[in-house]
């Protein structure tokens, strides 16, 4: 996962968190749902990037015994 991908995913996650919390404060269920879906979407993107990196051999190296 490149640094730019990490930054974009975290920014998307934070934007979703802000929407969700704003929706909770003002009582807007639609805004809450949008925020939750953006947060979950960023989590799925991060997991997909980690999986892709694992199959391509990038990422942390494990010692071979």
Automatic annotation (TrEMBL):
Pfam families: CsbD. Residues 5-55 form the CsbD-like domain. It comes from the Bacteria. Coiled coil: none annotated. Residues 7-16, 26-55 have a biased composition (Basic and acidic residues). Residues 1-65 are annotated as: Disordered. Transmembrane segments: none annotated. Belongs to the UPF0337 (CsbD) family. This is CsbD family protein. It comes from Pseudonocardia charpentierae.
């Amino acid at each position: 996962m490149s640094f730019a991908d990490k930054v974009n995913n975290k920014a998307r996650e934070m934007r979703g968190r802000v929407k969700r919390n704003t929706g909770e404060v003002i009582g807007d269920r639609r805004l809450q749902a949008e925020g939750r879906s953006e947060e979950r979407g960023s989590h799925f993107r991060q997991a997909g990037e980690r999986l892709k990196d694992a199959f391509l051999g990038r990422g942390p190296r494990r010692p071979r015994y």
